[in-house]
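Batch manifest, entry 17 of 40.
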Amino acid sequence: MRLSLARKAARPACACEAAAEARPRRSVDLRGAALPLVAIALWWALSASHLVKSGLLVSPADVIRTAYEQIESGALARALSASLAREACGFAIGATAGFLLGGALGLSRIAARVVGPSFDTFKQISLFAWIPLISVWFGLGDAAKVVFLSLAALLPVAAHTCDGIHAVPRNYVELAQALRYSRLQLVRYVLLPAALPSIFTGLYLALIYSWLATLGAEYLLVAGSGIGNVLIDGSEQFRMDLVLFGIIVVGAIGWALNALARRVERTVLARLHITAQ
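Output type: structure tokens
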């Protein structure tokens, strides 16, 4: 019976989703690359025509040359390793705290009444409003940046975990109660499996928000190295090739994190569904 409840919680919400999962995966659609390629071609043509005589417009060749220099010197590896280490640490701490907080708010009426109003108020405060307080308490080093990233990851995970638990169909809970499930069994076999899609949405958002917060922290808490500091150096030195190179790297890393999060979500949900069957 436990497997039956888990299977109900894990299977798609409608028949069309099940049919979509059963269909063989199509080849990769490359139409999304059309717009970036057109933009690069226009950029290349504009820079080659010398219509704009300004240091603000550099050619793609200059950006490629800068990329080679950054990679060859090891500067890119050092910057990325520092930023990604902060991202991983902040995401892990914030996601864990957010899951525990969201679980408490979703499972406990006392926690929802005591902590819920304060959490709802906390969500309304802009993340960057905490920077002055964090810088005073933790300084400008990595500790302050990790705290900032943890806050960025905590909010979406807590909110989506709580909402996912509250959205579990009532008949699932009633059936578990009729079968005399303990509180732990109810959470393990009914509530968590049914709330997993919402929890993964929170984790996905937390991963993206913490990456964006990484750049914000490196801009505002400038001590140390990181990809954000590469952008700052390029701006201060009036090197638009370095700035554009940094922007491209930031976008590529964000895209990779997005793809990784989606793949992990699909793998875990599919594995749970197969196990439940």
